[in-house]
Write a structure and sequence with these properties.
102 residues, alpha+beta, two-stranded antiparallel ribbon, 8 strands, rod-shaped
């Protein structure tokens, strides 16, 4: 009795009576293609996921923009002024810095 020999493609390994792609590769027909991993991402199983602080948009990972509540920041520095922790000059500088970042 003749048996057909299993041909294992590049970037793959024997798995039972067949083959499977190595880590970082995915099966496409009878080949193993490298999984695309964009900048600021890491391999996750047979795909990829964005690193902490980044969000997936299409085929890339973009930095998560932190929503800043400028009103709250201004209130906090006003409290510092009112409690005497900072003086009027420091308050004005901090206030301008917050406004400049808006």
């Amino acid at each position: 009795m003749c048996t057909k020999e299993t041909v294992i493609p590049a970037n793959a390994h024997a798995s039972g009576s067949s083959w499977a792609c190595n880590a970082g590769y995915q099966k496409l027909g009878s080949t193993c293609n490298k999984i695309y991993v964009p900048k600021n991402a890491s391999l996750s199983g047979s795909s990829w996921k964005c690193n902490s602080g980044y969000t997936k948009i299409g085929n890339s990972c973009n930095k998560v923009e932190e929503s800043t509540d400028y009103i709250e920041e201004l209130k906090k520095i006003k409290e510092l002024l009112d409690s005497g922790v900072i003086n009027e000059e420091e308050f004005k500088k901090m206030k301008q810095k917050i406004i400049d970042n808006m």
